[in-house]
Predict the structure.
Amino acid sequence: MIIVKVGGGKGIALEAVCQDVSALVGRGERLILVHGASHETNVLSTALGKPPRFVTSISGVESRYTDRDTLDIFNMAYVGKMNKRFVERLQQLGVNAVGLCGADGRSMEGERKAAIKVIENGKRKVLRDDFTGRIEKINTDLLTLLLDHGYTPVLCPPGLSYESEIINVDGDRAAAVLAAAFKAETLVILSNVPGLLRDVNDPASLVHKIDKAHMASYMDLAHGRMKKKVMGAAEALAQGVGTVIMGDARIEHPIQQALQGQGTVIR
């Protein structure tokens, strides 16, 4: 089983990702694709007159502030646009893709945060109207049913809270929980950078290999969105996933190149 998470940043090569999914499924691989849509959400938010707002937690992790209006925009970009773009192209390539967000069939479920503590302009704040959470449960029965009948699940946030509220969840960490739930051999995390870089401005500073015992020492290299990708990788490995590869989603054959060791390989 391979879990592939492709980010939603600017520059992602949707066509190349879909071509690789088609090739792998055609060879008999069991695969679940998880995707993001962060750039599309930013574009849509701005177009609708509600520019994106990002907040930084006390621990230094950045996330999208998601009130109810932002959640609706989030759903438009993730579920209404990008999920169906992936499904459409995969169907054209002969993959019987089924698009789901985490709320569908409670495929990705977790707890909504009652409040989030953030730092803005040097001051601590508590936000209580934020619809964010973290995935803790995967409906493996539903996804296995699809896989067993020849369908390829294409998943995306949002997820569903235990109280049946739609919640914004981090796709990388959700993919880690998904990979652990399926005891996947490999989790591939693709984004618009080559992998974990020692210097964010120098693609040649790529970290090629990390032993999971030394993951903590590499956390300081991760900045912005990459921090959650490294967190997701660590969580997947801690829960029994054999290998996590952080690769580049802007290149030809991004999944196959990652599986061949192109990127940051963590074992």
About this structure: Residues 66 and 72 are 9 Å apart (CA to CA). The chain has a mean pLDDT of 94. The longest strand covers residues 133-138. Residues 2-266 form a domain with the Carbamate kinase fold (CATH 3.40.1160.10).
